[in-house]
Amino acid sequence: MKKKISIAIPCFNEEANIETTYKKIEVILKKLSSYDFEYIIVDNGSTDKTKEIIKKIAKKDKRISGVFLSRNFGPEASATALLDYSTGDAFIGIPCDLQDPPELIPQFIKKWEEGYDIVVGIYKKTEDDLFTSFLRKSFYNIFKRISNIEVPINASGVGLLDRKAINALKSLPEKYRFFRGLRSWIGFKTAHVIYERKKRLYGASSYHSFFDYVKHAERGIFGFSYLPLDLMVYGGFLLTLFSFLFIIGYLYWVIAYGNPINASIPMMLVIFFFGGILLLAISIIGKYIQVIVEETKNRPIYIVEDTINT
Question: How far is the first Cα of the chain from the last one, in angstroms, to the nearest whole number?
């Protein structure tokens, strides 16, 4: 029997791209006749005509399974839904914006046939704007240094997962998910495919502002690193030690020479400094508590409103 491969496509307001993406992938898949393919397309609460277009092409091609979420649950929910609905021996994720070219599919499959369970696309160049590129690269440089797992710099979300890697990811119960981190955390034999990332053809990215990138980065940092908490412990110890030595020295000076501080401004600066550090520490603890709360709520990662061909 032929091996079956799931082509997974996440969508959010991609009415201008979805048909083009499907046609481009079809051209490539026709050259890979030794495999069976299915499409899993997840619409993450689009507000344009994406849903109607998916249903239209799904009626013509029964290999397409459309999954429509009740609202936008975020990119990690899309990734989870794609994994849940895939039935293939392998899973290949291709975003709908065509920044990561479908021409990578044969390279992913080749690595899979060589015995790799996970294949990760890594872009050496990108046509994104400089600010976006800087944010991504900075985050992965920081993440690589502070996390307890190895995530390559410029690793993208595209790639291939063998069925056992899919099952491993599906078995993870956590709700506060960071897919690229989890993909590395589960282990397995991993290969890399280097490529050049293109510019988005049509439409706009679901990341609209700097804070969208920050929120996504938080999932990686607070989900895979305890360094912020460790820094609080070490920083608190050093500040306590410094404060103790300062108090001893200050008392000695007062006894020997009198009170050297005759103004309130230095004291106010000290209060503001330590108050800021305290607020930052509480905020970091609050972020970890937020992760705990998200997990204990035990809400589903996404809710499906409608499906087609599933």
Answer: 22
Paired tokens of 18: 């979805």
Q: Which residues contact 219 (CB under 8 A, 6 or more apart)?
A: 76, 176, 177, 178, 181
What's the rounded Cα separation, in Å, for the pair 249 and 216? 46
User: 306 pairs with which residues across the strands?
Assistant: 68
CA nearest 287: which of 210, 209, 227? 227
Q: Is 157 left (phi over 0), alpha (psi -120 to 50) or beta?
A: alpha
pLDDT given for residue 179 in this prediction: 84
In the chain, where are the structural domains located?
Answer: 3-225, 227-297
Residue 28, pLDDT > 70, answer: yes
- Which residue's structure tokens are 């029997």? 1
Closest C-alpha to 83, from 175, 155, 13, 165: 165
Minimal CA–CA distance to 206: which of 302, 304, 95? 95
Within 10 A of 64 (CB to CB), how many other CB atoms are there?
21
| Cβ neighbours of residue 140 closer than 8 Å, sequence gap 6 or more | 151, 152, 153, 154, 155
Q: Which CATH class is domain 3-225?
A: alpha beta
Q: What is the pLDDT, as a whole number, of residue 82?
A: 93
Q: Is this structure's pTM higher than 0.85?
A: no
Task: Give me the mean pLDDT over the 61-73 stretch.
Answer: 92
Around Cβ 128, how many Cβ atoms within 10 Å?
18
Give the position of tokens 């956590």.
174
Partners of residue 8 on adjacent β-strands: 40, 93
Q: Identify each DSSP E strand in 34-84 by its residue range.
A: 35-43, 64-69
Identify which has the larger pLDDT, 142 or 191: 191
